[in-house]
Design goal:
Blueprint lengths: L8 H8 L10 E6 L8 E6 L4 E8 L10 E5 L2 E2 L5 H9 L4 E7 L25
Antiparallel strand pairs: 1-6, 2-3, 4-5, 4-6
Length: 127
């Protein structure tokens, strides 16, 4: 029984089998919350604004980041939804929410990790 020689081009094929390596691949994000808790992110855009529905601000446990494009909410595609319709879907989803998002390149550098540097400087306005 013979061993196959090592073929470097197989590495490239292996890369394609892992969709998470593609930054444009949609990702499922599942969030849970307790009854009186907020979801921890804000929406931006919608069909009525003629823009893609995206995450504006997020403190959603490191799973969502500002700029992530929301493609579906609990299985319902967001392409035709107005901002208000998408907000309602999210509000009506109870304590678990499933989103399909396309991550923005560079958005993974969450804003949560930014820390102030040096002392804050305050300047009083001149009267």
């Amino acid at each position: 029984h013979q061993h196959q020689p090592y073929q470097p081009h197989q590495q490239h094929q292996q890369h394609q089998e892992h969709p998470e390596a593609d930054p444009q691949a949609p990702v499922q994000v599942s969030l849970q919350r307790s009854a009186n808790q907020m979801w921890g992110f804000r929406l931006q855009g919608g069909a009525d604004y003629r823009t893609q529905l995206t995450v504006m601000k997020s403190a959603a446990f490191g799973k969502l980041h500002s700029g992530d494009a929301i493609q579906s909410v609990n299985g319902q595609k967001t392409r035709q939804l107005s901002h208000a319709q998408a907000s309602s879907l999210i509000k009506e989803s109870g304590n678990s929410l499933t989103l399909i998002v396309v991550k923005q390149p560079g958005a993974a550098d969450s804003l949560q990790h930014i820390r102030p540097q040096g002392k804050p400087k305050f300047k009083a306005p001149k009267k």
